[in-house]
């Protein structure tokens, strides 16, 4: 009886939570429908003049857009609270208290992949100060290439960049205006490298813009425009020679470190193969008959004599 009641209660909570998340996602898509329609040729699943947001799970929703200058495509994702799963909600909340998970919030996570013909390739981030140090340490792209910069922005934000001058160029115009009139930003990132340390370094990855913010914040609405503002700022950058040289020096340093590690790995593998071959040869010799061992020893002596003769010839 108790199990039946608990099961029914869980089903009811699930349906109510899923319905609440669907309502949040639908309202979010409706608010920005006209903006996206004015920016992109293709916007998700159009039904008349409205856009239907795709459901990717009880707490995950997304829109796909394409057909815009400077942009290949973009994903506009909502990562909502697990309202339909009280167990996940509770564990996520508890883990967030000890730093094992992000605080439980309704978040927008927007990813824009820029045109491949954009030559400006660099790593740059604007982070909320409360999570900045942790993000910086955990992300490969930020920790390897960027440093904290001083930029005139709201005090709750920190900028990590490969060049101070580059930061000042990116955080200007519309980007600066949006950041000053909004609140709730957690991360705005420009990168072409992975967030985790890869086994092999590849420098031809897509240049992307990623923006994460708290949609529950009443002053976060204008942050929806930040991804495309950053995309346009990056595409239109005219970098001075000194900034270009700085960026090249930064990535060359990372590439050299990988080349050194790869050379050390190859040397280690070669040494292992030689050691294995030597052990196999020793095992083979042990199993030879007495006459075969004498022949083998004689061949080894002759080989050593030839090596010694070559050494003497070179010294002469």
UniProtKB/TrEMBL annotation:
Q: Which UniProt keywords apply?
A: Membrane, Signal, Transmembrane, Transmembrane helix
Q: In the UniProt record, does the keyword Signal occur? A: yes
> Where is it predominantly found?
membrane
- Please provide, in alphabetical order, the Gene Ontology terms of the cellular component aspect for this entry: endoplasmic reticulum; membrane
Molecular function per GO: calcium ion binding
Return the Basic and acidic residues bias intervals: 269-307
Task: Report the membrane topology from the UniProt record.
Answer: Single-pass membrane protein
Signal peptide segment: 1-20
- Decide whether keyword Transmembrane is in the record: yes
Which segments carry the region annotation Disordered? Answer: 269-316
Transmembrane parts of this sequence? none
BP-aspect Gene Ontology terms: endoplasmic reticulum calcium ion homeostasis
Q: Cross-referenced Pfam families, in alphabetical order?
A: CCDC47
**Location relative to the cell:** Membrane
Name the chain's protein.
DUF1682-domain-containing protein
Kindly list the organism's lineage: Eukaryota, Fungi, Fungi incertae sedis, Mucoromycota, Mucoromycotina
């Amino acid at each position: 009886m108790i199990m039946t009641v608990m099961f029914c209660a869980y089903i009811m909570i699930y349906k109510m939570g899923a319905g609440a998340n669907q309502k949040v996602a639908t309202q979010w898509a409706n608010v920005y429908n006209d903006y996206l329609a004015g920016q992109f040729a293709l916007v998700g699943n159009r039904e008349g003049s409205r856009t239907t947001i795709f459901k990717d799970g009880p707490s995950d929703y997304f829109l796909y857009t394409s057909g815009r200058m400077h942009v290949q495509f973009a994903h506009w994702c909502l990562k909502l609270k697990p309202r339909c799963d009280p167990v996940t909600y509770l564990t996520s909340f508890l883990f967030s208290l000890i730093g094992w998970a992000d605080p439980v919030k309704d978040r927008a996570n927007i990813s824009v992949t820029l045109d491949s013909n954009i030559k400006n390739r660099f790593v740059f981030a604007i982070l909320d100060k409360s999570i900045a140090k942790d993000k910086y340490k955990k992300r490969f792209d930020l920790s390897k290439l960027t440093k904290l910069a001083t930029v005139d922005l709201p005090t709750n934000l920190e900028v990590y960049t490969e060049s101070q001058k580059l930061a000042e160029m990116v955080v200007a115009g519309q980007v600066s205006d949006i950041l000053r009139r909004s609140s709730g930003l957690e991360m705005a990132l420009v990168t072409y490298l992975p967030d985790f340390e890869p086994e092999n370094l590849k420098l031809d990855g897509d240049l992307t813009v990623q923006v994460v913010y708290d949609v529950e914040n009443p002053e976060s609405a204008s942050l929806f425009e930040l991804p495309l503002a950053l995309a346009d700022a990056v595409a239109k950058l005219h970098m001075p020679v000194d900034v270009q040289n700085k960026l090249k020096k930064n990535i060359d340093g990372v590439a050299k470190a990988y080349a050194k590690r790869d050379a050390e790995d190859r040397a280690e593998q070669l040494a292992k193969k030689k050691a294995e071959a030597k052990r196999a040869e020793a095992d083979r010799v042990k199993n030879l008959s007495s006459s075969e061992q004498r022949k083998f020893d004689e061949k080894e002596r002759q080989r050593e004599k030839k090596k010694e003769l070559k050494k003497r010839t070179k010294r002469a």
